[in-house]
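README, section 4: Worked example with a bound small molecule

Sections 1 through 3 covered apo chains. Here we extend the same pipeline to holo records, where the ligand is supplied as SMILES alongside the sequence. The molecule in this example is calcium ion. Nothing else about the input changes; the structure line simply encodes the ligand pose together with the chain.
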Amino acid sequence: MSNKSIHSAVKISLSIALVLVLFVTSCKKTEDGNSENGTNQTNGEKNTSIVSGNSDLVPLPLVLPKAMFVGTPQNMEGVTHLAKPLGRPRDPFLAPKGTTNVSFGKPVTCVSDPEPIIGQISYITDGDKEASDGSNVELGPFLQNIVIDLGAEYEIYAILVWHFHKNERVYFDVIAQLASDGDFIDNVTTVFNNDIDNSAGMGTGTDMHYVETNEGKLIDAKGSRGRYVRLYSNGNNNNELNHYIEVEVWGKPVK
Ligand SMILES: [Ca+2]
Ligand SMILES: [Ca+2]
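The generated complex, written as structure tokens:
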């Protein structure tokens, strides 16, 4: 073999080696990309607080009230954009170790309807999640909102909302927001919005309508920061009134 052909052979071998290295690198990137998606299904939604390399995630120790009905939704005439029920219990929701219910017993205000028709605004964070009469607060018709003051800034991973679960209902214009101030001016994050026609004026929502159950609605807040949590609703498919049984905000103090 001449010097020239040895030189060519070395060149070809080096090229092959380079192609192999590039191929392996690109495969690795794809794998990493997939694991970073964090596709833990929760009620058909992605738990995006899960990121690769974070082994300190644990299921939230949620305690559910007694179920009052089972089966497929009835009488949902006229409700569009309705999420299909999962047909099985919700998957565990993973959040960083040390995430707790930081809204228990915290003050709740309802500027839009400070004198409820039935019950007290304080029922919303009193820990009672049962469907029975006497456990829910009934607010007037039209768009109403409640604000929970957590008392300090938290990294918030999940918001659970029980409006009503004695029978099948869909509430409209359900919007959940976090902010650093009670007037919702600083650092406002909208974590859920199913106001599909923007009648509440907070932007057109892309989240689905859903049937209330004893599981409550689990909203993935993705670790967004906030001290105040605001929730809107605008009646339901059964009547024009607004109800809350309980709201839980699961978070960790901001370091
Ligand atoms: Ca309650
Ligand atoms: Ca609407």
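What to look for in the output: The first strand starts at residue 41 and ends at 42. The mean pLDDT is 85.

Section 5 describes how to batch many such records.
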